[in-house]
Amino acid sequence: MKLRIKSGDDQIMSSMTDYKYWSLALSITCIKVLLMKSYHSTDFEVHRNWLSITHNLPISQWYYESTSEWTLDYPPLFAWFELLLAKFAHYFDENMLQISANGYISDKTIVFQRLTVIATDFVYFYAVLQWCQTIAKLKIRFSKQFIYDQWFHPNVILAMLFLWNPGLLLVDHIHFQYNGILSGILLLSMARVIQKRELEAAFWFAVLLNMKHIYVYISPAFFVYLLRNYCFDRHLNFKATNFAKLALIVSSVFAASFGPFLALGQMRQLMARLFPFKRGLSHAYWAPNFWALYNSADKVLGFSLKASPGANASMTSGLVQQYDHQVLPNITPIVTFVLVIVAIVPSMSFLWRRSHQNYSQILFLRCVVMCAFSSYVFGWHVHEKAILLITIPLTPLAMVSKWDAKMFNMVSVVGNYSLFPLLFKEAETLTKILLLVIYSVYSFKSLEIHHKISANKFENSFPLMNFLETIYLLGLIGIQLIYSLCPLFNVCQRYPFVPLMTTSFYCSLVLVRFELRTKTYESPPKKGRGPTIEKATNDEVQPMIQRG
């Protein structure tokens, strides 16, 4: 690690050497290799089927093929990505490329698909390296502790919090998905915004949208920031040339992605695959959001009022489908859409008004988090894995202020814990607990040192947390015991949804609370609950960022 120290009290962060950074990246890669034989979900067969579809069929049939129930429902660029992977698949096992309604699995297929996730994670590694270099642009005051212990150098903290994210490890390398490459493209586009390379930011975010459309949830933050900062000057004079450049780049990416299907007259079919609103308000396992609270309230009212057993069972059958609430009004997609819009409009308005302030990049990062949070809490058919859209963009903000660090620690612990039910096999229990505990211990300790936190007001509370928040986090131990031990008792045979509902309900309490608390970036919180944008302008935010 190289350090450069200025005279006086100012100490400027220097980047890690490439050698040390890639050594850290390779260490986590070794962990991923060790996880190759872990349990994998139906997503493993989903992506294998997509390999076979793109390999065997012309593009005109990609979004019509339905031999398997796991039909292609990602945007075209991800389909091309699957086709690229299929070019290498036959070197491992040609049978995996056969279209089959019954699925296919073999040891060589497992090795190949696991290796593709590990290999494509190097996009994520590169993006994190960009952030380790970019974070120096945020003039953050930090502790001298890292001089004596390099594990607490700000760049090391940031790299560790990114690379060892337990949610990514659980979802990609056990459950099985490709969130690493997608998160890498997201982080790269965000880094380009901080670096004032707006056209590159627009390009990479357009690529991301055309690989997985769930990222449309955070597109308002990119749209408002790039439009205001790149297409208008400080006095709201329109820059037509800049707008034309931005529009050309974004439209070119979309034309390359959707153009062939538009020419084939398949846009209606493609859109039907991308946005299947008939899947219902909540996923088979409720993501811990506002609708988990709503569903739980409906369950309790249903039992109290002795609602019909049929309605009672439909919500927790484990199937992805529409269902009716027993007592409370049914929720339609338009209701969730309106709630999401209402939740993000204030922050987007604030970003537009303040985008030319010298802390505008901090505002942009926070608005990305706000958009992700609002869509997660109020969106339609939210997958529990969507918590990654919050925890990953929130990571660099943990270095900015104590309030952001507190929010990151709480959301990271609870959000990553909420992914545990995805890995329901007993063999993975110890793995997922150890990954979360080790990561959380380092996160709490490193951010405590980074923000030079003095002794806690409450002697027995975690760093950055008050006593009640500490008790809440410790309560996750009890929730895990309920989830693990409940199947041993008759109550779970009679009410099999109890463990999942308890986990989702408990986690949603804090995630919904923090979604509402993000609004304190615009309106001052109560004393002692972290700085606001207004208050922090002179004493905290301004020193964190360089203009231009």
Automatic annotation (TrEMBL):
<keyword id="KW-0812">Transmembrane</keyword>
<feature type="transmembrane region" description="Helical">
    <location>
        <begin position="110"/>
        <end position="129"/>
    </location>
</feature>
<feature type="transmembrane region" description="Helical">
    <location>
        <begin position="386"/>
        <end position="403"/>
    </location>
</feature>
<feature type="transmembrane region" description="Helical">
    <location>
        <begin position="21"/>
        <end position="40"/>
    </location>
</feature>
<keyword id="KW-1133">Transmembrane helix</keyword>
<feature type="transmembrane region" description="Helical">
    <location>
        <begin position="176"/>
        <end position="194"/>
    </location>
</feature>
<dbReference type="InterPro" id="IPR004856">
    <property type="entry name" value="Glyco_trans_ALG6/ALG8"/>
</dbReference>
<comment type="similarity">
    <text>Belongs to the ALG6/ALG8 glucosyltransferase family.</text>
</comment>
<keyword id="KW-0472">Membrane</keyword>
<dbReference type="GO" id="GO:0006487">
    <property type="term" value="P:protein N-linked glycosylation"/>
</dbReference>
<feature type="transmembrane region" description="Helical">
    <location>
        <begin position="150"/>
        <end position="170"/>
    </location>
</feature>
<dbReference type="Pfam" id="PF03155">
    <property type="entry name" value="Alg6_Alg8"/>
</dbReference>
<feature type="region of interest" description="Disordered">
    <location>
        <begin position="522"/>
        <end position="548"/>
    </location>
</feature>
<feature type="transmembrane region" description="Helical">
    <location>
        <begin position="201"/>
        <end position="226"/>
    </location>
</feature>
<feature type="transmembrane region" description="Helical">
    <location>
        <begin position="331"/>
        <end position="352"/>
    </location>
</feature>
<keyword id="KW-0808">Transferase</keyword>
<feature type="transmembrane region" description="Helical">
    <location>
        <begin position="246"/>
        <end position="264"/>
    </location>
</feature>
<dbReference type="GO" id="GO:0042283">
    <property type="term" value="F:dolichyl pyrophosphate Glc1Man9GlcNAc2 alpha-1,3-glucosyltransferase activity"/>
</dbReference>
<feature type="transmembrane region" description="Helical">
    <location>
        <begin position="358"/>
        <end position="379"/>
    </location>
</feature>
<feature type="transmembrane region" description="Helical">
    <location>
        <begin position="463"/>
        <end position="483"/>
    </location>
</feature>
<comment type="pathway">
    <text>Protein modification; protein glycosylation.</text>
</comment>
<keyword id="KW-0256">Endoplasmic reticulum</keyword>
<protein>
    <recommendedName>
        <fullName>Alpha-1,3-glucosyltransferase</fullName>
        <ecNumber>2.4.1.-</ecNumber>
    </recommendedName>
</protein>
<keyword id="KW-0328">Glycosyltransferase</keyword>
<dbReference type="GO" id="GO:0005789">
    <property type="term" value="C:endoplasmic reticulum membrane"/>
</dbReference>
